[in-house]
Every structure is written in structure tokens, then in C-alpha cells.
Write a structure and sequence with these properties.
Number of helices: 15
Mean pLDDT: 79
Low-confidence stretches: 28-120, 339-349
Helix content: 25-40%
Shape: globular
Structural class: alpha+beta
Strand content: 25-35%
Radius of gyration: 29 Å
Distance between the termini: 75 Å
Length: about 575
Amino acid sequence: MKKCPNCGQEVQDEEKFCEHCGEKLEGAETVSAEASATGAETSAAAESSEAGANADHVVSAATATEAAPTEPQASYSYAQTLEEAPAGKKGMKLLIPVVAVIILLCAGFFAFGKKLLSGGVALSTEQKFLHYQEKYLQDKMDAMVALGFINEDLKQSSDMTLTGEIEGSDEMNKYLKDSQIQLKYDMDAEKNSFIVNLSAKVMGTDLLEGFADYRDGKIGFAIPVADEHYYRGDLKTIMKNLTEQDIVAPDLKKSAENRKRLVEISKKYGDLLVGSMNKDNLTVEKKEFTLENLKEKYTGEVYVFKPTEEDLKNFYEKLADTVEKDSDLESLLEDVYATSTWDSALGMGDAETPKDQLSELAKEIRDNAADTAKEMADNEFQWQIAVVDGDLRQVLLSTKDDSFSLEIAKKGKTVTEQINVVSSSSENMYLKNSYSVKDKMLEGSISGGNGVLDVKALEYKIDTTKHSALMPYGTYIVEDPTGMGAKLTLTVSDGEKGSSDHEIVVEGLQNYYMPFSSAKINLNTTKTGTATLPKEEEVDISNYSQEDFEKLSETIGNGLAKVATTLQGELAG
């Protein structure tokens, strides 16, 4: 064992940081087993003292991350980050289960949600507490899908064509005229298939065309202008030959299944949190409450969850047990990320399997449960929500010095949602989204700042009944907050032959000493795509060696060099 040079406590030889005070242990003095035994009583007293000192302040997750060592790692896992953080600071990282709920609520902020249903009739008080928040998030996500910001279809395809022009620069427009970049894609998850075509045209001349595809475990690519072949092979075999590692090939067919599994896993951990609530730590009272930042008052049900130190400790211990034995989460991670096999195959070190990572995470949660619970309780952690007629109006998570809140105010047809962060260690921030719906048009603005410097980030007017392959029809306006006059306007509208145009116009550029006043970029998208497979002669590359791929790379590189020469000629002409 060795001794910490800061607090004098004994730690294991392999430890990089003192588990008592967080001191880095480079050059720490090694102590004998006899010395270790002699100092055991002193160590216990010092540890108790240190734990009390740590409870007097809150350490943010960001601070804990910054404190982690910065030397390069062969591979990365979340559990490693926890392990390498100083013990005095890593405890707050275990707030992640609570912080995750906050992040989920934030994820729905920019959606323009439907009215919440008055739910929870047959639910317990504890279940209602999470139900209102879960329902709010689900409605936001549903609205994102309905408006066209999120596409959950298992079959998707589109042709996307990018063009541009400059006002006030004939020289640049000469090159932009009849020039375009086009991307075509076709994804069919049920067939485990994804096809992409990329092409470029300069001044009316076809300059480049490329193909790539992944179909049921096989990858393929072709660049006809550089080489007259279509190279295709089994992905697992290629990676096995090149790296001697077995990888998990992507399976797009599992997309829908994985979504369902994620919902079930979320319910599992929601039930775990509900299980930590009881009539002593969760109260509900009908009373008047105030949205402090939006300056609005309402009367409704106010739920306050204020767990004791023992409640928190029990929750973290049960969380650790659940994470460690969660075969569903392990399987999902393997399907979605396949981190261990891919990291190893790509030479990024022997990453741990999802099972091992979950096991280590569970150990960290369990080992730090008591310290984390004490720190949260000493800092008077509480979680409050307010509901009016089934509508969530407030979520407030707070300690003595810091708070995070979501406030939702409604006046007639106008809804204002604001996220607020109040911190004793950094600048306070807010982000506000205010909108209303009239005649199926959604109008609003998004702004934010710190209360001193406030910026209107975006104004929008959206047609809720129509959207392109990417987003809703309408106008989105951003102005330079410095007042120099630049203005960006995105207009999404009908294009030719049933397509959609996404026209971006940037005005006022002359105020920034540019030789032109405005620029226009248009992205045209279709609802269905025309991506195709290449017609070149197919070559099986499944058993190519490293040398074979190097030769192929050289051949294609030489072909692309000729393309570049052609481009230079086009521009010079």
C-alpha cells in the first residue's frame, strides 16, 4: 500500500487518486503492511472527518468531470470516468439518474406540444408524480413527430439538391449557375438496407458521382469517375480479416424493436424511483403557487418530493442492483452500439463489454451510495412539480444553493415555456419559448440569456398541417443580436413537382465588409427518393488483405486526382 501525501491516509498501490481526499497520488509514499495495520484506527477517524467536510458543499457533475485525469486512454467507458475521478468529487456523478429526468424534459422543450390529457385517475400519488412529467415529455415528442421534425418511419427516402447564388457578385454567380450537389438516400429498416448516392455538377458539367450501400450485413461502394468497379463484401468478414476481431454488424430491422425495449427499460427505472417515494417524503397539497421567473400565479396540486438520507441511500443501492442485473439494458446496448467489438476491431483498445461496463457502473453507484445520499440530504435536495387540471406547469429541482426549473404559463392561446438554471458557482441562464396557434399556424419566438444580456434567438411561423422530409413549412428568422444588420431567413415551401424548397437568405452582408449584400442557398427535397445501386461490374472484397485495400485506395486516389484536374480546368475556363 501507499500513503497519500495530502491527508496521510493509506490507499491501494494501483489507485491514482486518494479515496479519502481526492489528492492525485503520483509519487505517493508506499507503506508496509505493518504500518497499514498500525494506522487503521487513525484512518477511520480521518475518513469520518473528511466525509463531514465533504457534506458542507455541492460539487457539480461538470466539476467532477474536469477533475478526472487527462492522460490518453486505450478505450473509454462511463465507468472508467467514474473510477478515475477523485473520490471526494465523484459522488455527485451519481445524481445522473435524477439529472437524466431533467434532460428528458429539456429534450421536449422545442416541440410545440399538444394539451396534456387529464390522466392518472387510477394512479397512486407516487405514480402521478412521475406520470405528469412523463406525459408532458411524450406529448412533446408526439408533437415533434406530427410537425415533421422527427421521422420515425422505418422506410425513408429522399433526393436532396443544394444550389446557391450571390447577390452583387457576377463573378461568383458564374460558377454557381448550373452547379449543384445532390444527395439521394433510401433506407428500408425492414430489409436492413441503406443506399446513398452523392453527385456534384459544376457549371453544367457532371463532375462526381459516388455510391455506397449497406444491405443485410454487406457493404458496397463505387466511384465511377475514379474506377469502373462496384466493390462489395461481407462486413463481418472484412473486419475479421483486417483486424482478427469479430464485430456485430448493424441490424436496422431492430429499430422498432429497440424503441419498444427502451420504453420498457425506462418504465423499469421509473418504477424504481416511484418505489423510493412514500407518504413521508412525498406530499401533495392543493394551493396557490408562483412561477417565479414568468411571474404567474396559479392554484393547483403541488407535489414535493424531499427524500431523507436513508431514502436516497436505499434508492442508489437498489439502482445499483438493477443496473448490474439488467439484461435488457445490456442487450440494447449491444444491439445499438456494439462498442466493445467495434472499438477492438478499429484498434481503439480492448473496450469492455456492455455487461462489464454496467457491472462497473453498478459497483460505483453502490460504493458511493452512502456518501452521495448524505451530500444530497445535507444540501436539502428536493424535487417539486405543480399541476393545474392535469396540465404540468412547473418542475423544480433544487438544493440550498442551486436550482433547475421548467415553468409553463398559459394565457388564452399563448403558451410560454421557460427553462431556468440558477447556480452558485456559475452564471444564471434561461431559455424561453413562447408560442400560440391561430388558424393552424404556429407563431412564436425563442429567446435566452442571463437576465443582463438577453437575445431573441429565433422567430418562427409554422404551418402545422404540412412538412417536408426535414421540417414543417413556414418561415424561421434569425437576426444578428449585435445590431450590425445581418438577417437570416429560412423559408420552407412547395417546390416543383411535389418537392419542397428550403430557401435560406442571408441579408445585410455588406455591413460585415463583404463584397456582396446577400446570399441565397436552396435545399430542395422530395418525399420519395430515387437512389439506385451502381451498374458497374461487381468485385467481391470480402477477403481483401490490408495490401489489397492499400492498392485499391491508390487506384481510386489517382482517379480522383484526375477529377480535381478536370475541376480546375472548368473553373479556369
